[in-house]
Amino acid sequence: MVEIKTDAALEAMREAGRVVARALAAARDAAGAGVSLRELDEAARAVLTEAGARSPFLGYQPSFAPTPFPAVVCVSVNDAIVHGVPDGYRLRDGDLVSVDCGAELDGWTGDAAVSFIVGTPRPADLELVKATGEALDAGIAAATVGNRIGDISHAIGSVAAAARCGMPRDFGGHGIGRRMHEEPHVPNRGRPGRGFPLRHGLVLAIEPMLMAGGSDAYRTDTDGWTLRTADGSRAAHIEHTVAITEEGPRILTLP
């Protein structure tokens, strides 16, 4: 069932979104050569604790996962696409890092992700992050009353195709509200004019994941969580929680 949120609910989700933005900023600020992925998790966790927010990631165990997720952020490095488990790996100069974070505050949830480069960037990584951000921007621009889910999917997929990037077909965005994952599913490819109609009060997590090698193939690590590109190429993941409103798309996970 798809829940259409009231304007009061959108305001509450905006507050949860602010917490997500602060947690992502804290993780990014903590990142640097020699810093462990667990330290990024600790930085984000401190923000959630201070805000009185709960992590929808910590302890989450969907049907595909062999164990509950052990952290408040996913940290995916280099060829990892999404769902990376923060561990003792220490970041190195030039690493491409994607951090995904959620927060539940007063019964409402926000979810967002950022991608960035530690230290000296590779030009190809800068292009990949830029293309991923442009795919997200295109998807958000299509999130307007009167459009359909397929319009968002088509906008994202068109940018990825133009950049000659692959995307994992089985993963995409989703509805969000009282829970982190709600209906409808938001594929990162699709046909315009198809799918669920966009109405005022519908809230979606829009999240392109681009893979530089151009292939859509991926594999799952032995941890049962981390998805990696099958060809070893780099990946980037950028996400916002977005409300569809009569005034246009409203990003709820900005600072």
Automatic annotation (TrEMBL):
It catalyses: Release of N-terminal amino acids, preferentially methionine, from peptides and arylamides. It is an enzyme of class 3 (hydrolase). Transmembrane segments: none annotated. SUPFAM superfamilies: Creatinase/aminopeptidase. The keyword Metal-binding applies. The keyword Methyltransferase does not apply. Gene3D superfamilies: Creatinase/methionine aminopeptidase superfamily (3.90.230.10). A divalent metal cation 2 binds at D111, H174, E207, E239. Residues 11-246 form the Peptidase M24 domain. Its cofactor is Co(2+); Zn(2+); Mn(2+); Fe(2+). Its EC number is 3.4.11.18. GO terms for molecular function: initiator methionyl aminopeptidase activity; metal ion binding; metalloaminopeptidase activity. One of its GO terms (cellular component) is cytosol. Monomer. HAMAP family: MetAP_1 (MF_01974). NCBIfam families: met_pdase_I. This is Methionine aminopeptidase. It comes from Streptomyces radiopugnans. The lineage of its organism: Bacteria, Bacillati, Actinomycetota, Actinomycetes, Kitasatosporales.
